[in-house]
Amino acid sequence: MSTTPSGAGDRLVQVGAIVFFVGALATLVTVAPLFLGTDPFPSAAYAVCMLMGLGFLIAAAGVVRSAWKSSPKRAATR
């Protein structure tokens, strides 16, 4: 068990990783019929693949927030 406190953007990074992996799984499921020679999914299924990019943006926002909160300039003013 870790005793280090959570950073400012840790929760955003965790949520972003989950959303990213859901989008990655959706991408694999959506692309699989193209390789298997079956009928492709409807266009709405491809929209779920966009969760991969959204998850990346959420995680990046968490990293930026952590860096912003722990910057030396901001730490000196506290």
**Shape verdict:** rod-shaped
Q: Could you say which structural class the secondary elements and strand pairing correspond to?
A: mainly alpha
Compressed to H and E, one letter per element, the order equals HHHH
Main sheet characteristics: none
| Backbone CA Rg | 18 Å
* Strand count: 0
**Count of alpha and pi helical runs:** 4
Distance between the termini: 29 Å
The low-confidence parts are none
Overall mean pLDDT: 86
Q: How much of the sequence is in beta strands?
A: under 5%
Fraction of residues in helix:
over 70%
Q: Keywords for this structure?
A:
transmembrane helix, membrane, transmembrane
What features would you describe in this structure?
- Helices cover 73% and strands 0% of the residues.
- It has 78 residues and is mainly alpha-helical.
- The chain is rod-shaped, with a radius of gyration of 18 Å.
- It starts with 9 loop residues before the first helix and ends with a helix.
- Keywords: Membrane, Transmembrane, Transmembrane helix.
- The chain crosses the membrane at residues 12-37, 43-64.
- This is Integral membrane protein.
